[in-house]
Amino acid sequence: MKKQRALIATMLGVLPAGCSGPTAHARPRSEHAEPRAHDRGASAASAGPARSLDIPAADPAGPDLQTHLLLDSAAVKLMSIRLRAGAILPEHASDLPVLIEAVAGAGAVAIGDRRLPIDASRVVSLAPAVRHAVTADAGSELVLLVHHLRGASAR
Fold first, then answer.
1. Does a structural domain hold residue 155?
2. The CATH number of the domain where 54 resides is what?
3. Among candidates 110, 88, 106, which has minimal Cα distance to 143?
4. Phi/psi at 34 (nearest 5 deg)?
5. pTM
6. Residue 30 falls inside a structural domain
7. Assigned domain for 95 exists
8. Do the Cβ atoms of 108 and 134 come closer than 8 Å?
9. Rounded-to-integer distance, Cα 3 and Cα 102, Å
10. 80 near 56, Cβ under 8 Å?
11. pLDDT tens for residues 12-54?
């Protein structure tokens, strides 16, 4: 468990821009693996009016927490986050409104003492600056799409 916490703390550097975790420094993804084309994300300008984005497969030798930038446009920053069974994305916050969508698996988003279940039938909506953590259920790898909504108002 101690090793897992240290790994997760190290992985805080891969949180999306605009998110803050318990540490003041950040480590780039490139420390963990050479970025691939889909890790660098796509610019909206080069996208044209429509495109299909792949959600990267799990790296079997990779860490319990794997993140990838899928799209970085004026309207949205889209990240995929993959948590192995039982893994935790430590508490953090975004300065933007966020939608968290599970595309596979199940888990919970913790906001203080409150736990919101998340799976393919539920989406979690967060206002800016809401501190939260995410935990994958013990028997389920959790794959998330996290939408950071630029220019959106929190209602």
1. no
2. 2.60.120.10
3. 106
4. -65, 125
5. 0.70
6. no
7. yes
8. yes
9. 26
10. yes
11. 333 444 444 433 223 333 333 333 333 444 444 455 788 899 9
